[in-house]
Fold each of these.
Amino acid sequence: MLRIPCPFCGPRDHSEFSYLGDATVTRPEAEAPLDEWFGYVYLRDNPRGRHREHWHHAQGCRQWLVVERDTLTHEILGALPAREGSPAAGPAAGKDAAE
Ligand SMILES: [Zn+2]
């Protein structure tokens, strides 16, 4: 069982959350080439180790979070409100472990 430390509600069971996906991808500019958009929409890494993911606290405060999780051990390393944990807010964790 995963316990996610929601910054608004405190530690909660992961069953209260909905997983959205990779929080390290950034949306291309509207005029970006089609292959860049294809990568944004369809292509994802399958990282091994630390990774940032979007989770929605659907059965709690209904806030979007960026959760840092180790994909090998499932250890939760932290959680931030999504507006503070976007790729623009800092370097993406997990990219080092995946390479
Ligand atoms: Zn919450």
Note: The domain at 3-25+34-98 is CATH 3.30.2270.10 (Folate-binding fold).
Amino acid sequence: MHPMVKPALRRGWRDLKTVQFGMTPAHAMTLGPMDLATGSFLDLLNGTRGLELLREEGRRMDLPDGHVDRLVRGLARAGLLDDSRGGGPAADALRKTKEVLDRLRPDLASLSLTTSTPGDAIGQLAARRSQRVQVRGAGRVGAVLASLLAGAGVGEVDVLDGGRVEPWDVAPGGLPPESVGDRRDESARRAVRRAAPDRPPRRAPAQTSPEDGEPGFSLVILAPRDDVAVHAPDPAAAEPLMTSGTPHLYAGVVEGTGVVGPLVLPGETGCAGCLQEDRADRDPAWPRLIAQWRSGRQRQVRPCDLTLATTVAGLAAAHALAFLDGRVPSSAGARWEVSVPALHWQARPLQAHPACSCAAAERGKGEHLSEDGESHETMAVQRPSEQCREAEAERPAGTWRAHV
Ligand SMILES: [Zn+2]
């Protein structure tokens, strides 16, 4: 191990004995008591020295015996330490492609904030390269979203859509103006390739869903261009995903409202069927309205504010990445909505509905991982915020399976 105090967090002394790592409530923490000699020793923890060399430096600085090991252990327990050589073979391979890693460096630094074990950040970044994601819908939202995922290091991003690129599909980061008239799916795939820092070698599909024989995806994102499908996702369309236990995320723009979620973990969290049942409970006219909306084919260009579409694409991609990285983002069990012009984000909780065939309601709230509540032998750690705790329920990346 070559310990490195996470450079992502700004460091500052709150007083003579207390160091604060980080600035923002979500990720900052304080560590103390710490003397000045130990404090200056922190500068040596920059990933260039192994433990043996660090112990030697410690002796040279007259730090007591065992102090360096205790410090490194304490920092690691506090989640403040990274390992410049850790992360496993996939991480080693990523380190060898310097230009790729350089482009992903801010993403790597960000991952270091949400991982606790040294080496995990680059391990997760490397794991993204073996993930397969499908984006269904290549309009202003879908094409940008797919490009973002590829740009953030997801190895395989497939895009599905029909028809040809219309002038109003064009969006910065998505389908370019010169693609107008080309096949939508092919143009979106080209955009994805342009956004990818490199193209990892194609690998054999890891999973195959028994129903259709197609290779399985870690996640499918439904980003329809049709606004009715955004507002009221059709449970029938998601049935194969439910049957194969494929996690899927909804995102899109309907009229002046951007929607991200729900992230459906089949059998665990509320799905499109739950949403439909819930709406019918609340509004007796809902089935009548939805039948009219679905049958009345709109030929006009639908409203889709460019900045709102880009916002939705960005937030949905962030939720997708959080899931792919092994977390459960807040869109599991909720739809995030934002409307122009006030642009307040709000979460509309989506409970699993007892009448829905997905059976998520029976399964209750699913597993809840316990927090790391252990105390530390030498240093007290204080995290100002508990906000990010829910997202910290860690799974190994890409390992989610439905228990259906
Ligand atoms: Zn359901």
Note: Residues 270-271, 273-274, 352-353, 356, 358, 360 surround zinc ion (CB under 6 Å).
